[in-house]
Protein 1
Amino acid sequence: GAVVSQHPSWVICKSGTSVKIECRSLDFQATTMFWYRQFPKQSLMLMATSNEGSKATYEQGVEKDKFLINHASLTLSTLTVTSAHPEDSSFYICSARVKLLSSYNEQFFGPGTRLTVL
Amino acid sequence: AQSVTQLGSHVSVSEGALVLLRCNYSSSVPPYLFWYVQYPNQGLQLLLKYTTGATLVKGINGFEAEFKKSETSFHLTKPSAHMSDAAEYFCAVSPRGVKFYFGSGTKLNVKP
């Protein structure tokens, strides 16, 4: 199956700094990538949808200036948490959508990135 | 509007017993339905999915789920639990296969 990687797998940073998380589709081209956030013991919440070469679409309540998304190529999307604060600590998961011949476009999930802000 | 309800945040079964994890959904359009498993500090692994066709779907590791439109349900079952099945399970609905909406998750504990 298709593989999605994330880097780093975990990161610890100081409050006020910015952190970049990469999401790559390793063996397919992803027309769309999604970013999710998962709080401890909770479900995944969709943060934003990004299409290659265009601006990301953010879900209601997600600060686009806080969570910068760049989808520079068909295999790479990045999420930058700017001026991170302890409340941004979370598990961030990306997924990539591959366009198949059928009407259903399969989505594959990355392994996640654990962000801890001190 | 789309939503997913997973009844029971924690389910505990004995090894060898039947596993039943419940999922009900609401969707304004015919949905695609999924079950994912998540092990601690890992991403999501697809167990099975329903898109079209046969309503009884078989997945990996002996799991299966049945799409019941009249009950708006997609419950996950496994005839005999194994210790390695202990994990958190998420049901998800995706209208037309674009955005995913996840349930709150069910943590499965398997007792020896």
Protein 2
Amino acid sequence: DIQMTQSPSSVSASVGDRVTITCRASQGISSWLAWYQQKPGKAPKLLIYTASSLQSGVPSRFSGSGSGTDFTLTISSLQPEDFATYYCHQANSFPGTFGQGTKVEIK
Amino acid sequence: EVQLLESGGGLVQPGGSLRLSCAASGFTFSSYAMSWVRQAPGKGLEWVSAISGSGGSTNYADSVKGRFTISRDNSKNTLYLQMNSLRAEDTAVYYCAKSRDLPDSRSFECWGQGTLVAVSS
């Protein structure tokens, strides 16, 4: 199985900050990577697919990059509604493994 | 508007069975692969199982293989997860999720609200 390692596990940031979350796959997955946002008690929401494509309706302050084994999710200017947990997910092969999550907290 | 509505969760004893359902609307159900993803209390996301649009191809996580069965009824726009021999570690919120279009059919563009399965004596 492909292992997905996210870092950091949590980050404290202020409104307006730039936040970067990284995800590393244990083997190459081309660009088959998605990022999801999850708020407490809610279902996950797709933000980014195929590593860098922005899902319809998602604000442009979210961006994704990377290919192969190393990927990044960037929030260019953190907004109050962005405080949540973020998960990467490899969509290259079954089983579709997720990273352990990164909790973005208010500083 | 795409909607996914799970049902069938509840409290079950270890070794028991439960069948989850996910009613889909707002899209051509038979054209999309579907998955079940679960989340244990306070933990991260775990993919459980996937099924192709036709239902002819299925995949399972090792943790549920041989105990869980995914299926779909395209005439009823409904996805199912039959869960047998349940264990305490199966306790989680179970989400159904709609895949994106090919070729990116393993990313999930829409999720249901989830249904809680609790396995305890």
